[in-house]
Amino acid sequence: MTPTEFQALTGADDAKVADLESFIARLTEANAVMNLVGPDSLPDVWNRHIWDSAQLLELAPAASTWADLGAGAGFPGVVLAILLKGRPGAHVWLVDSLGKRCRFLQEVVQALALPATVINGRAEEQTLRVDVVTARAVAPMEKLLGYTQPYLQRGAQGLFLKGEKAEAELIEARKVWHFDSDLSVSRSDPRGRLVSVRSLRRVHSR
């Protein structure tokens, strides 16, 4: 995928594409000294990472506030912040427990003047109230739902980027959690899945 093709899919303006290109350059440089993404994924970065992240906005077009748990390299959170830049009330919280990843994210947020806040801490310990909580390649669904439970209980929708094992992960998660979910095929990779979750509670809670 090229930046032009990405623009055609998303309607992103030239300024946002320029921000995305600056982000990619910073990611590529940082990736040489710390493991943020698999190096083999960078040649196809616009599809594998940028479009993969951006498609979440189509599932929650009215959402202005997002929390990205295990934000890592900035997918999907930094991409969402770039695309939401300029929307009144838009903000993305980038939550990660590893200091060096947070320092990278903070540099990107400051350099691109993004509507985002970096939080160095454990996802499940935050008291954020957001429209959507999201995560990508963080943990199997059973564990991920534990991380996101506080956000969902405060009214957030869960939107998660998962791989081809998503269906099996949901089956396992239902042994521990009651929840409503929708599953759709990723537009960036037919093997990927987008999982939407609401109404989460533990199976044995009273």
Automatic annotation (TrEMBL):
<dbReference type="GO" id="GO:0005829">
    <property type="term" value="C:cytosol"/>
</dbReference>
<comment type="similarity">
    <text>Belongs to the methyltransferase superfamily. RNA methyltransferase RsmG family.</text>
</comment>
<keyword id="KW-0963">Cytoplasm</keyword>
<feature type="binding site">
    <location>
        <position position="75"/>
    </location>
    <ligand>
        <name>S-adenosyl-L-methionine</name>
    </ligand>
</feature>
<dbReference type="InterPro" id="IPR003682">
    <property type="entry name" value="rRNA_ssu_MeTfrase_G"/>
</dbReference>
<dbReference type="Pfam" id="PF02527">
    <property type="entry name" value="GidB"/>
</dbReference>
<dbReference type="GO" id="GO:0070043">
    <property type="term" value="F:rRNA (guanine-N7-)-methyltransferase activity"/>
</dbReference>
<dbReference type="InterPro" id="IPR029063">
    <property type="entry name" value="SAM-dependent_MTases_sf"/>
</dbReference>
<feature type="binding site">
    <location>
        <begin position="123"/>
        <end position="124"/>
    </location>
    <ligand>
        <name>S-adenosyl-L-methionine</name>
    </ligand>
</feature>
<keyword id="KW-0698">rRNA processing</keyword>
<feature type="binding site">
    <location>
        <position position="136"/>
    </location>
    <ligand>
        <name>S-adenosyl-L-methionine</name>
    </ligand>
</feature>
<protein>
    <recommendedName>
        <fullName>Ribosomal RNA small subunit methyltransferase G</fullName>
        <ecNumber>2.1.1.170</ecNumber>
    </recommendedName>
</protein>
<comment type="function">
    <text>Specifically methylates the N7 position of guanine in position 527 of 16S rRNA.</text>
</comment>
<keyword id="KW-0808">Transferase</keyword>
<keyword id="KW-0489">Methyltransferase</keyword>
<feature type="binding site">
    <location>
        <position position="70"/>
    </location>
    <ligand>
        <name>S-adenosyl-L-methionine</name>
    </ligand>
</feature>
<keyword id="KW-0949">S-adenosyl-L-methionine</keyword>
